[in-house]
Structures are given as C-alpha cells and as structure tokens.
Design goal:
The chain contains 3 helices and 30 strands. By secondary structure, the protein is mainly beta. The chain has one domain: YVTN repeat-like/Quinoprotein amine dehydrogenase (Methylamine Dehydrogenase, Chain H, 7 Propeller), CATH 2.130.10. The strands form 7 sheets. The protein has a 5-stranded mixed beta sheet with strand order 13-14-15-16-20, with no helix packed on it. The protein has a 5-stranded antiparallel beta sheet with strand order 26-27-28-29-30, covered by helices on one side. Strand 7 and strand 8 form a beta hairpin. The longest helix is centred in the first third of the chain and has 27 residues. The chain is globular and about 70 Å long.
Length: 461
Amino acid sequence: MSATFKTPQEASARWISEGKTYKDNLNNWLDIIYIDKKQPETECPEETRKDMAPYVLEQIIAFNEQGKQEELRKLFPPDNDPMNWEGIAACVSQVTILPDNRLVVTVGEWHQEQYMYVINGNDYVMLDDIFMFGKSADKKYFAKAYPDKITITEGWDGPVIKTLAPPKSYGEKYAAVKDGLADLSLADFGIHHLVVFPSGQRVAMASAKGIFILDESGSTFIETEEKEVEDEGYTFRHDYPHIDVSPDEKYIAAGSQSSSHLLFEEKNGAWEIVATVESRSSYPNLAKFNYKVKEAGEENDGPQVLLSSCHFQGSASLSLPIKNLTPDFSASGYDGDDTLNYVDTRKWVFSAANYGWGYGLGCNDGYIWFKGIYGWQYGYLHVGGTVMDIDISEDRKTMAVASYSGQVIIYSCDGLLFGDSLFRNDTNRDSKRPDDFSITNTAYKDMKRYLFFRGEHPKVW
C-alpha cells in the first residue's frame, strides 16, 4: 500500500532518516565482505521505503514543473532502491562529458527509436535528426549519425570536417548478396557503436547489419564471422557487434556473438587479423582499448585491450597486453593462457571506463565494479539498472553514467578521496563516507541526476 503524507516535509523526514539508516547498515555490512573478507553474521539489511515510491515520484514531477530541482534534491536525496521505474523509464544508451561540462545524451537502444539531448545544468536542447554519436578517444572529434549520413566534427560544436555515406555493400566477396543494404537508412542499421579514428578521417561502426570502417571513399566490411551465403536474398545479422579503435590508430578490436575476440591491423590498405583470442565466456560483446595502463616492468602490464564476453553469471572479461602480440597471435581465455590478464570471471559487462590500474566495469547487475588488470577488486558503486555507458572528465574528477533505468548520474570524487585513495580499505575505513545515500566503497559522490521518462523531456533530481 502506498504511503500518504500531509506535506512533502513530513515525507522528507522519513525518506532521509530511514534512507540514511539503511545505507549506513548496508555499507557497513558490505565492508565485512569486501574489506574484512568475511561472511556477515547478520542478514542483509532491507530497504523500508518502497511504499513511498509513488509519492516521491509525484514530488519529482511536481518540483520539476515548478523549477525547484534543488529543493527536491534536499528534501528527497536521490536513491533508486525504493523506486520502481519499470514501465516509466526510457533506456539511456550513451553519455559523454564535453570540455565545458555539458552532457551529450542518447535515449533509446539500438533496436528502438533513438533521440538525443545536449544538457547544461538544468537546461536541455533536444537535437534534430541526429540519433546517436561517437567520439575519438581524446574527444577531439565527434561523429554524429543522421538517417542519411555521418558527419565528423572537430569538437562537438566545431566545423564538419568529413561527411560519410552509409555502407552500400559487403564488398566483393559478398557481391551477390542483395539484401537491401544500399537502401537502408542509417537508423535501420541497428548501430551499437560508433568510434572516430584519432586522426578524425574515419569512423568505425558496429551494427546489426555488419561492422564497417567508413571514410570518404566508401566503406570496408570487417568480417568477424564467416557466412555461408547460398542465395542472393541472404540477410546479414550480427548479434553483440562491437568495435573499438586504439588511441594510436594502429589497431581495431572487433567481434560479435559467434566470433572470437579479434584484433586487426591495417596493412597495405587492408585490415588483417593479427590476434585471435577465444573468449572466456560464450558470446563476445565488448572491446575497449586502455592505453592509460603504463609499462612498469611487470608481467602483462602496459597498454591493453579489454575483451568481454557474456553468458549470464558465466560472463567474463580478459585483457590482452599489446606488448604480448606476436605474429599470428592466438590465445584461449578459457584455458588460462598466461599471455592474457583475467580481469573478471563473472560479470556481464555492458560498458567500461579506463584507469591507470584497470577498469570500471559497467554491468547488468546495476553496479560498476572497479577491477585491476590482474583481477583485483578495488571497489564497487551501485548505479541501479544496467550500466549502459560511462564517461570520465579530462581532469578525472567527474564521472557520468548512463543506465537502462532511464538515468544519467553525475558523480564527483573531487576532494572526497579517502586520504590519497579512491577506495575504502582496511587502512582508511574510519574515513567518513562521501555520500549518505549511495551503496559504494568508493569516493564517488552523487551530485546530480537526470531522469528520462518515456515520452517526456528529462527531469532533474
């Protein structure tokens, strides 16, 4: 039964009091597991405010209509645990932080209608025609996807330096295939990833219709799965297509559900496979280069490429150190090859952020798990809803997270570190937690949330 209150202030008192008590108890309970490495003797604390969800949702809408977003946040500090967003939220699939702290956001998944916003504080602009974006590793260049073209701009607001046409064919090998590719709008390709090459001259695109490299001369099909094409009406379909480009533009990493993890290098104008890694789990679904990891004389350190595969609780993430590449390199994540790092052997990863020591893995369990390249777990941050995208500001102090539960959450660790550490551990566990309403052992503090409800413009929490 839904709770009722005479005033928002009355509801606020309960929301804050019970919420803080629950989070204190839960975070302390989790410290026993992740810091003490023991099993708690008590049951996991339970959320007591779920009956408040309908009332708080009403307040979120009302305070936004009145332009009182700051007051809303003070009365009802954001917290996903008591809320039920099912049937309300629109998935947020992309987010990035611009140099001036504006946000670029894509709402909708690859198989849905997608639309975009640029957000500045409490203000937003909905974009015309653009339905998703990509960027170079250093954010010097952005790709903007329109139904009929992809443009590359220098910076988000800068001039268009390239205009690229959609792929028209799968190349000479599949010239006999007449599946209507040339007639498709880009919005019908089912694009999962767009990545701009560091030079700003090309774009890598992973889509349900195929994986391609696009430039002004046309497109190159990157084959991850050999197809048995028996008739011209054959239709290409790729599940979990993914691609990333190395920051030095030397390699691309690509794959799809029925492929291996594949690393390509451009030789004499053609992309050739230079590394094949059999996935640890069933279905490859993500690749991400991390050149923030430096060589320090340790085995398997230095620049890496993260290779994630999925199959529910048997999902896994490996990383391949670039320095380990040899001619015709091959390895097996399943067999425990020592040329690879084993970052995680459980989590279904949808997104990842790079750190000098490893990764923030955005997972389907609603958490970001912070894992070292050798598998050490540094920390966790509960977001709520599958973590679709993560971006970190240039100064490394701000993190933006997009979730399936229709939210973009802005976190800050500026001045909030536990001594010099981003994570709580047995030497600093007496430090005050930076956020009373987050489930985390990190120094990240929830600063602002944007809520995306179906058929509505964003609301601020």
